[in-house]
Amino acid sequence: MKFSAFLLAAFATSMMVACEQTPDEVGPNYDGLTEVTYTSHDKRIVNPERGFYTQKSYHSVGDGSLSKSAVSAARTAGRSLFLTLFYLTDYIDCDIEQAYLDNMQATFNNLREGGGKAIVRFAYKNNESNSNKPWDATQEMVARHIEQVTPILMNNADVIYTVQAGFIGVWGEWYYTSNFHYPIKTDEQYADRRKVVDALLKALPKDRQVELRTPNFKMRMYGVTLADTITVATAHNGSDLARLAGHNDCFLASTSDTGTFDDKRGTGDWLFWDAETRYTIMGGETCGTGAKLHHCENAIQRMEEQHWSYMNIGYHQDVISTWQQEKCFPEIENRLGYRLALTNAYFTPNAVAGGDYRVVLNIANNGFAAPMNPRGCELVLVGGSKEYTFKINTDPRFWFEKCVTTIDTTITLPADLAAGEYKLYLNLPDGYESLAGDAKFSIQLANDNIFDAKSGYNRIHTITVE
User: Whole-prediction pTM value?
Assistant: First the structure.
């Protein structure tokens, strides 16, 4: 018998994020509670919405869709993210045919079944030669195509991690363009691009982000400066500014990342992304080794500064090989996005049916970033065939990197709870109901011997009800 359907309330929940603590700071009172400590590990974890991704491109109806076997193979290799690059080459001057839209839907269906999520991008051409012009569709046709894909994006937002702005330029990277001006010189030219972004923001639920190719695009199109960056108070509030993220597709390739930045590192638009990416998704790919900036020490420092959550495993191979040779690849693989681990916890020593039961959890995030999409947090009490779920009032999107988050909550145990031994779990399920019950989309903590792959729960304690 499963009682998850009627979720039992947790009350008096508090959350504290302690990045720094002075020696004389007085902490909470845990007198009378039982302390439990946990051992973390450095093993690879296949967790949702983070890590190295696999790229899949679809140029025509004949390319079909992302297969279930491809999702399974990627998970076996330690990856759950896919960059799904939908090329609309055949529809550059007409509507997208239904068969291509059906293939898109099949891709999302197979991601959902297999435990993967998509970084979505649309483009028209993948070759910048003059003979391949036009490199993108007219502004009117782009608007029509966004209108066509909106129902698919809305209906499959549960398995969409983020959408890159795309549509403009070769590869959808906003550079080689036939219809959107480059270089951009006027406010009107920026406004043309903003129309595409605004349409994409409307094509997605307010809990999903759209990534722009450079920080300058957000700053110029939306009239913001370093003084206007997102803060704890404005993060994840559903506003357009809170939903505009970034992707860097020439990471470490030069001192400006091949035009990604206008200013010197540590100034201007660099600082803009340093600040914004604590609350917005950052990812992309490397694209070369010529500048000699790709070596481990600099690469990891850059990922820390701009809170990288995902990266292409397939490009640039010389960079990936360097990380493997210099032996920092495992660290990067583990730290992309979030990496959560319990340090210690405190529990009421004696559990009584109908009584209050206090749980204090200290959770460290050793990744480069926090989780970025909505996610649940709940305690699950399991004994025999019965299961009781207690929702906890906390938001994992604010469990920041290099911080320890303290969750201090008191739950009321069911009055009819039979005497005996129960296992207490922490579950961090997907924020969408369609995936919340699927273990493949729950977060596994980086602790030894606590994760149950079948349920997706992390066992944190065993209690005895008297």
Answer: 0.95
